[in-house]
Structure formats: C-alpha cells, structure tokens
# Entry
Amino acid sequence: MSTLDTIPPALRSAAEELAASLELSEPIALFREAKARLDADGKARDMLKRLAELDSDLRRREADGTLTREDIDRLRAVQREAWSDPVIAGSAEAQQRAIGYLPEVNELISALLGWDFASMASAPASC
# Structure
C-alpha cells in the first residue's frame, strides 16, 4: 500500500484543488508559458545543452588538474550568450518568480494550520 493510498479523500481533493489553483496563479502560469517557449526553441535548448556540457567538462578538468584559463573564458562566453538570449532569460526570470511565490503559498498554509507546513513537508535532515 502506498502512502498516497492512506490520504483521506477530502484531503486528496483539497490537494488537487490547491494544485489546480496553483497552475492558474500568475507566477506559475507565466513559468509554464516561458518553459513552453524554451522547450519549443531549438536554438535556446541547444545553447543550454552546450552550456551544461561545457560546465561539466570544466568541472572534470578542475578535478583532474587540467583546467586552463581558456576553458574558463570559453564557459563565460557561452554563459553570456545564453543569458542574453531572450527566451532563456525570460524562462529563468519566470522560474525565479515562481520559486519566490511558493514560500508565500507555504506561509498561507502554515497560517491556516497554525504550524510551519513547509518545514514538515521538506525532506528529513540527515544526521
């Protein structure tokens, strides 16, 4: 039996309503739209892929002691190019707005419950 199977139907329904409302909220809706634009833009996706590959290569080179100034300069140039792309920049901005919105939602839930919902909902800390 899954933990989700033990959730009372009324709580499941309320959670589904919250999720649907979040999807309609401006910060989340704008994030979804920006993500869809990014997903549809092959040039932007390729640039982000190239940036991730360069970053991974740079970390590998740093770990094995072969990192050069040229490697760092190349990564920074691709970073500047990526962040100057309007689709990538718009997606990053929309993501940051959505991330900033979720603590507000957690605060509202916490106020309604009378205890810190976010701390209870987060992953347990390891020892």
